[in-house]
Amino acid sequence: MSAVNDTPVDTLSFEAARDELVRVVAELEQGAPTLEHSLALWERGEALAARCEEWLLGAKRRLEAARTATPDESDAS
After folding, report:
1. What values do phi and psi take at 48, rounded to 5?
2. Per-residue CA distances from 25 to 29, 36, 39, 44 (Å)
3. 3-state secondary structure (DSSP) of residue 21
4. How many Cα atoms are found within 13 Å in the side-chain-facing hemisphere of 72?
């Protein structure tokens, strides 16, 4: 398939990291030509998964902050 992407993971958007992670998993499932390539894909996949989790946790914190900042409508009388 393709070589491991050398774009720094910490610069990727959630969507870019997710899409690349899907490609990495597909390539691993097909079987890389060498052990070294498999290890490089695995390491890249781990970094991409961590980046996605970082984005999701950030989004969760933002939602929680927005909920806290907005008065609950059920409390309004």
Report:
1. -65, -40
2. 6, 16, 12, 10
3. helix
4. 4
Are 4 and 44 in contact by the 8 Å Cβ rule? The answer is: yes
Q: Are 20 and 9 within 8 A, CB to CB? A: no
3-state secondary structure of 27: helix
Which structure tokens are listed for 27? 């390539």
Tens-binned pLDDT, residue by residue, of the chain (77 aa)? 455 788 999 999 999 999 999 999 999 999 988 999 999 999 999 999 999 999 999 999 999 999 998 776 665 55
Q: How far apart are CA 72 and CA 40, in angstroms?
A: 48
